[in-house]
């Protein structure tokens, strides 16, 4: 959506049930009619394109380490690093895409533009397999290393997909959540379920990607799978465009970074002024001039920033003063929100490092185990990832349909439990995953030592099922919780960036995982034998998993420490003089975990 000028007759009292008064607009730039826009009727179009995009992404991501080792003949540690670098870029690019969506293009337009970039990447990926001049091995199907042109085009294609994901992922998810009005009781509860069922749709795409698509990659060729990705993505984009009349749109308001810089500049320039005795004396936009925006309650944390909202009598009215000299309480509190999420962001990275192993070492382990079932049917290595997706679907369904209703009655909390409690509970599963993975890998190495000829083929691939299932349960709590947390706790004008912050956790974790592999490889080489050999049988992944379990355990204590001191976003609909800590006009007390 482009920026528009809204000239709408103010709805009369009681019209909240008929009209959506959360500052969103319909596709004709009018106040949306509740009955014909938004809610699940719009969200289903959005979920459809997410399912197809995840099919493509996971079809590529879960088999990428196999492609790099089998087709490009890279060593395991080199392939693992390349996968982590790609995953890191893919999950950090949304920071840029989310900023563009919030500040300039709007979420709908950003999704459209990024989908076209994504499609170009998929087309290039397909051509790199079928076009004779771009094939990995030229006219022959056997070669010791791929042609240089294939490497260039292949990596260009997957990084174009990264760029497409950078705009698509944060914009689409926040655009889907925008379809629910937080000021409407029924839609607010639907929004709490949205993130749960969004991830169920994500898992549906994942399951198809790591079963049917991976089977095609293994038994037909990689190019056939690329054609499916391209066709499905183009078709789902068409469905997304058809849903345009049903969507609610947020008008971009310019760079969300500018107000934060204004708050910081104003606070520093007025640093010598005394604090007012009463928070009522801090400046806020009058209610009659609010334009349906949401106000935030004043908090006593990071009080230095409050000085930005102190009114200095310079002869002009407060409304006419420069925003670089005077900020509203809401803008000050939004700055505090961003500062407060930094410790939470940092303390969730080790969980992401555990998740990063599923697409690299976990999948590679599957290639070394017996994958035959029934009458000789062989399961593709990446298909074991289905177990993680099923674990996530089961945990989300149990949480949304059983735990939340029960916990609502017990805690009187609309969410059942606080978001950070949900995230912390999921972290326990990541620790358990690494412990189980270490024990299974130790058993596999013992099997190789007993029978070097058959090696670990005496073990079924389903030995890996527990570690995938447990991390799936953890994802259902922590990853879904992180999505909801970063969407809900950032300023309203930064919600695409909020989803990008969540994705950047996984991106930063992927980069740190690669760095950890490099550091551990270097240190263990010096002490004798590296934990990362040329292949799995000459490696000691079990020790690496124990190291990750230890890191995740220590980090859990850090997360609990940070979470217990966290204050949640506190929204009001009145001016700041009517609402501050301790007053009932706030939509929720500053609940702590």
Automatic annotation (TrEMBL):
SUPFAM superfamilies: MFS general substrate transporter. Keywords: Membrane, Transmembrane, Transmembrane helix. One of its GO terms (molecular function) is tripeptide transmembrane transporter activity. One of its GO terms (biological process) is transmembrane transport. The chain crosses the membrane at residues 85-105, 111-131, 197-216, 222-242, 337-359, 379-399, 419-440, 460-487, 499-524, 544-563. Signal peptide: none annotated. Pfam families: PTR2 (PF00854). Coiled coil: none annotated. InterPro entries: MFS_trans_sf, NRT1/PTR, POT_fam. GO terms for cellular component: membrane. The keyword Chaperone does not apply. It comes from the Eukaryota. It is found in: Membrane. It is a multi-pass membrane protein. Belongs to the major facilitator superfamily. Proton-dependent oligopeptide transporter (POT/PTR) (TC 2.A.17) family. This is Uncharacterized protein. The lineage of its organism: Eukaryota, Viridiplantae, Streptophyta, Embryophyta, Tracheophyta. The gene is LOC100790191.
């Amino acid at each position: 959506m482009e920026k528009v000028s809204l000239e709408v007759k103010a709805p009369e009292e009681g019209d909240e049930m008929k009209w959506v008064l959360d500052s969103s607009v319909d596709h004709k730039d009018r106040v949306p009619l509740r009955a014909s826009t938004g809610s699940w009727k719009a969200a289903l179009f959005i979920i459809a394109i997410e399912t197809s995009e995840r099919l493509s992404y996971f079809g590529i991501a879960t088999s990428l380490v196999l492609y790099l080792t089998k087709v490009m003949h890279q060593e395991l540690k080199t392939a693992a690093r390349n996968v982590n670098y790609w995953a890191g870029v893919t999950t950090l690019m949304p920071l840029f895409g989310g900023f563009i969506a919030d500040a300039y293009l709007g979420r709908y337009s950003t999704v459209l533009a990024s989908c076209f970039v994504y499609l170009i990447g998929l087309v290039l990926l397909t051509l790199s397999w079928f076009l004779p001049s771009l094939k990995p091995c030229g006219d022959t199907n056997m070669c010791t290393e791929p042609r240089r042109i294939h490497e260039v085009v292949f990596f260009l294609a997957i990084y174009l997909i990264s760029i497409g994901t950078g705009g698509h992922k944060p914009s689409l998810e926040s655009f889907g959540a925008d379809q629910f009005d937080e000021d409407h009781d029924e839609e607010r509860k639907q929004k709490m379920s949205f993130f749960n069922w969004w991830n169920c749709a994500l898992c549906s795409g994942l399951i198809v990607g790591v079963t049917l698509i991976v089977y095609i990659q293994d038994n037909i060729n990689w190019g056939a799978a690329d054609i499916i990705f391209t066709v499905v993505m183009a078709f789902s984009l068409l469905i997304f465009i058809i849903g345009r009349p049903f969507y609610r749109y947020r008008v971009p308001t310019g760079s969300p970074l500018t107000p934060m810089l204004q708050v910081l500049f104003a606070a520093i320039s007025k640093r010598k002024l005394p604090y007012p005795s009463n928070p009522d004396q801090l400046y806020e936009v009058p209610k009659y001039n609010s334009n349906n925006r949401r106000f935030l309650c004043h908090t006593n944390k990071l009080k230095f920033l409050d000085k930005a909202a102190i009114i200095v009598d310079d002869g002009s009215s407060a409304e006419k003063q420069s925003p670089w000299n005077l900020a509203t309480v809401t803008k000050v509190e939004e700055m505090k929100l961003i500062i407060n999420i930094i410790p939470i962001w940092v303390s969730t990275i080790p969980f992401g490092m555990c998740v990063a192993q599923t697409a690299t070492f976990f999948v590679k382990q599957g290639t070394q185990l017996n994958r035959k079932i029934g009458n000789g049917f062989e399961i593709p290595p990446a298909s074991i990832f289905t177990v993680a997706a099923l674990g996530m679907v089961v945990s989300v369904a149990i949480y949304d349909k059983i735990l939340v209703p029960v916990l609502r009655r017990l805690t009187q909390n609309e969410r059942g439990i606080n978001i950070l409690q949900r995230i912390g509970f999921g972290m326990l599963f990541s620790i358990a995953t690494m412990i189980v993975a270490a024990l299974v890998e130790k058993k596999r190495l013992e099997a190789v030592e007993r029978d070097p000829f058959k090696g670990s083929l005496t073990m079924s691939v389903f030995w890996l099922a527990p570690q995938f299932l447990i991390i799936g349960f953890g994802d259902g709590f922590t990853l879904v919780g992180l999505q909801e947390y970063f969407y809900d706790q950032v300023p309203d004008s930064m919600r695409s960036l909020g989803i990008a912050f969540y994705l950047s956790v996984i991106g930063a974790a992927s980069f740190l995982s690669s760095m950890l592999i490099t550091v551990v490889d270097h240190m263990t080489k010096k002490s004798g034998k590296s934990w990362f050999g040329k292949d799995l049988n000459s490696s000691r992944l079990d020790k690496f998993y124990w190291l990750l379990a230890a890191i995740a355990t220590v980090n859990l204590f850090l997360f609990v420490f940070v979470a217990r001191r966290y204050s949640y976003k506190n929204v009001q609909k009145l001016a700041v003089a009517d609402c501050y800590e301790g007053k009932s006009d706030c939509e929720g007390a500053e609940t702590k975990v």
